[in-house]
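wait is this the right file?? whatever heres the structure
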C-alpha cells in the first residue's frame, strides 16, 4: 500500500514534462514553417549565396523574378556622355535675314533694255584706202533706251572697231550735221569721205546695204540725238 501511494504522487510531474516537450516541439515546427513556407531550408550554401527558390515541378532556370525586383538600369555610355534618349536636341539655326527685293523701276518706260545687235546699222568713225580698195572703220551696236527729255534713243556700240568695204559708186544720203536740215540729202562718195577726214571718230549711225560683191552699195544716215 505504501509503494502504490508513492507511485501515484510522481505521475503528474512526468505528465507535465511530457506536455512541455510536446509544446516545445510544436512551437519549433511552427517557427520553421513560418520561416520557410514550402518546407525547404534557406540555409546559405557553402559559397555564401542563397539558393533561388523554384516553382514546384518547374525548371530552375525558368523561375520568374519576384514582383519587387526592379529592372537593371542601362549602363552609361562608355565615353561618359548622355544616353541617346537624354541627349539634347540640336537647336535649329535661325535663317539669315533675306536681302530686300530690288524695288521695281519708278516707271516702266516700255523700252527693251536687252535689244539685240542691229544687223544693218553701224556707227562710222573713219575710212581707209589700204589694200587698194575703200573701207569704212565702224562699230556694231544697238539702240538703247531714250532718256527723259531727249529727242531719241542713243545708239550703244559694242565690241571692237571693224572694217567694212564700200563701193566707190555707193549711194549715200546724209543729214545733220553733215548737211544742214533734218531731211536726208544725197551726196557723193568723195564728199562723204572728206567730211569723215575732217571729223574723225564722230560715230554717226548709218544704215547700210551690201551689194552682190559684199561691199556697201548704199548708206543712209540715221537720226541720232
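ok assuming it is, sequence goes like this
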Amino acid at each position: 500500500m505504501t509503494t502504490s501511494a508513492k507511485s501515484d504522487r510522481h505521475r503528474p510531474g512526468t505528465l507535465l514534462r511530457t506536455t512541455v516537450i510536446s509544446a516545445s516541439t510544436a512551437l519549433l515546427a511552427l517557427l520553421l514553417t513560418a520561416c520557410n513556407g514550402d518546407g525547404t531550408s534557406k540555409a546559405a550554401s557553402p559559397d555564401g549565396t542563397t539558393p533561388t527558390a523554384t516553382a514546384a515541378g518547374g525548371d530552375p532556370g525558368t523561375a520568374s523574378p519576384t514582383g519587387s525586383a526592379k529592372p537593371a538600369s542601362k549602363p552609361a555610355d562608355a565615353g561618359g556622355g548622355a544616353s541617346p534618349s537624354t541627349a539634347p536636341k540640336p537647336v535649329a539655326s535661325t535663317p539669315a535675314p533675306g536681302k530686300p527685293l530690288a524695288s521695281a523701276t519708278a516707271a516702266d518706260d516700255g523700252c527693251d533694255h536687252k535689244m539685240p545687235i542691229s544687223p544693218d546699222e553701224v556707227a562710222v568713225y573713219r575710212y581707209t584706202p589700204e589694200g587698194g580698195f575703200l573701207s569704212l572703220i565702224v562699230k556694231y551696236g544697238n539702240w538703247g533706251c531714250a532718256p527723259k527729255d531727249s529727242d531719241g534713243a542713243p545708239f550703244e556700240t559694242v565690241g571692237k572697231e571693224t572694217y567694212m568695204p564700200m563701193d566707190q559708186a555707193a549711194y549715200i544720203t546724209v543729214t545733220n550735221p553733215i548737211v544742214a536740215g533734218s531731211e536726208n540729202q544725197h551726196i557723193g562718195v568723195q564728199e562723204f569721205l572728206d567730211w569723215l577726214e575732217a571729223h574723225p571718230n564722230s560715230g554717226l549711225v548709218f544704215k547700210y546695204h551690201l551689194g552682190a560683191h559684199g561691199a556697201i552699195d548704199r548708206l543712209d544716215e540715221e537720226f541720232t540725238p
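The first strand starts at residue 121 and ends at 128. so i think its the right one actually
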